[in-house]
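Protocol step 4 of 6: record predicted structures for both targets in the notebook before any analysis. Target 1:
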Amino acid sequence: MDRRVRFTGRLVTGTIAAVLLATACTATEESAPAAPRPRISVSPTPGESGIAPNTPVRVSVDGGVLTDVSVEQVGAREWASAEWGAEGDERASVGGSLTEDGSSWVSDRNLAPGSRVSVYATAEDADGERSEVVSTFATHEVAEDARMADPFVLPQEGQTVGVGMPIVVTFAEPVEHREQVENSMHVTSEKATEGAWNWTDGTTAVFRPEEYWEPHQKVAVDLRLTGVEAADGVFGVADRRVEFEVGRELIATMHVPDHRMDVEVDGERVRSIPVSNGKAERRFNTTTSGVHVLMERYARLVMDSATVGIPAGSPGYYRVDVDWAVRTSNSGEFTHAAPWNGSIGHANRSNGCTNMSVSDARWFHDNTLMGDVLETTGTSRELEWDNGWGFYQRSWKEWLEHSETGRPQVTDGTPPPGTVHGEDL
């Protein structure tokens, strides 16, 4: 990128040379015009106020390359996050990405509402000439009733979960601008993989890896929601970080006609459990086939068919107390103790649940984690992808197609694949 001008000339002889010599002392010298320095442009326009927090900061240069860009927010203590420092410093920096040729830079985070933003940029041309600019503008405040509420996140901070565990983020209000929100939720793991978000409804986003998580590792979820416009006029006002651990790999497999469940931990079979599954007289009492991710556990549970659409007085209604129950779907399926079922290990006689002896049901309850996996085969009813945590029922290709970005997020710290801002870049 060496743009220095090279001067060349010829040897001049005779009269012409003499004339040039004679006139050299008497001619008026004119200074060559100074070469223009690099010209730096900043957006938003310097001095503007009322800027939407999800507006990108852009810096570009003509006649040189950018050598340094920094963006600082001041006076936004209310939105302080962990990245601002333990003392809730009133200043926060905003990172960004520089193009390969050094001609432009764009922020990769949204801005804090109600803050004064200062942009410092330096550029240099091929001759080493430098230019510097300082540009300031202000973002608008967000009214109390236009602030995004803190979402509920599973897993919760510090939990240890199984290898099939999804990350489930539930917002208090419907999310309209889902791509911005997806790209503002960063997932990092010690053992990198590819994953993506899908939405089960207007308020719930789910992240799952392409395959199950590698066991024995830590995972972090950074919800960088400050300044994100979740719905028209509704902005995030805080960031949040959740850390959890993926424990050992527990995968249970069950071919329903065999009346047995095998449990493996880190690839080694640790228990073979006789079971009795759904009698399959109709769809309701047919155990679902597919990848079930264990959801919650109960030492004692009242099972009432009214909760799954069979009210009292209807054919097939039941209400029974069960012990050592583990939920495998939202359509009423659990593993649980069933001492009344004399067909355990021999025939399928349940209403769709997986019946076990008391000792086996207690062992399964006590030795499983939320996020462990039960892979079931051999029935005519397929688990729906959004029934409980049946998210692995969608192929990876389908999962990506239903992501707002359509591309995977790599959990090695690489930024998500799309924009977090309110306009296309």
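Target 2:
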Amino acid sequence: MSTLFVRLKDVASPPIGLGCMNLSHGYGSPVPEPEAIRALDEAFDMGYRHFDTATLYGATANEKVVGQALAGKRNQVMLASKCGLAIDPELGKRVIDGRPETLKRQCEASLQRLRTDHLDLYYLHRLDRQVPIEESVGALGRLVDEGKIGAIGLSEISAATLRRAVAERPIAAVQSEYSLWTRNPEIALSAACREAGTALVAFSPLGRGFLAGAVRNSERLEENDMRRGLPRFSAENLPRNLRQLEKLEALADELGVTTGQLALAWLRAKGDDVIPIPGSRSITHMRENLAAGTLDLDSATVARLNAMMTPDQVAGDRYSAEQQADVDTEEFEPQD
């Protein structure tokens, strides 16, 4: 059982959670609600117990779907959501707002959509640079005191911000993009999490589908698929990255597993305090991802994976300059 579950909830859980965003947000057209609910039902039945959603996803639609799917199962799962980043219905765009009154209002609305009286883990989705982190964390702390959330999480933040936050309140988890081809947490955040006793929850642990071999041609992605705007999926960079993927495919074939399972097992080898939350629209892929929780890699295999897709081998930044401006994470120095 992961340290995160030990701290938050007495739930027997696999070491891999489920990111629910893909069903409603980011990767083209949303999955129709009945199909999304069926996928979440199947996920529960196959063993998932850690479900992650957010106010942002699908402009609140994802929370509604998760709430319906988990109705009657609430005490058997660890439920996480996020605040401080939402779609403004009047502006029609994402707005970062970490003011205490906003976080309280968003939490109460999330509880209604998720059909529950408390969230086990509630993240500040993005740092609001206009609001001191201490004020945002203080507001989340008051929600803990009121019993509306079990613990505080932060998302896409730096080691320095985490250290400021834990001086205000304990931080149970930090969510950061972490995978074979996105190793930014290794710059400083991973060490800061361990220093604070904070779990590192890895979102996009399959490289937004790339490490599972799901993207061979970005032109085939739907027009509203967010990956079209990410540098690593550009027409210039994707072919170079696919050549790096071939090394992972060869090792996966040698071991008799999928590339996705191998990528998840590599993250699990980082320690029990690193918790991958892959997302998928496919029930088959959800099952494959969960099975990676039983795959233990020997030190030689981990070393081979460590040498793959290092920052100097990956073509393109994680985000565009505009997208990077919205996050607080450390970045690797540009390669010469």
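Step 5 preliminary note on target 2. The beta strands are 18-19, 50-52, 78-83, 85-88, 93-96, 121-124, 152-155, 173-177, 199-203, 274-276. The chain has a mean pLDDT of 94.
Proceed to step 6 after PI sign-off.
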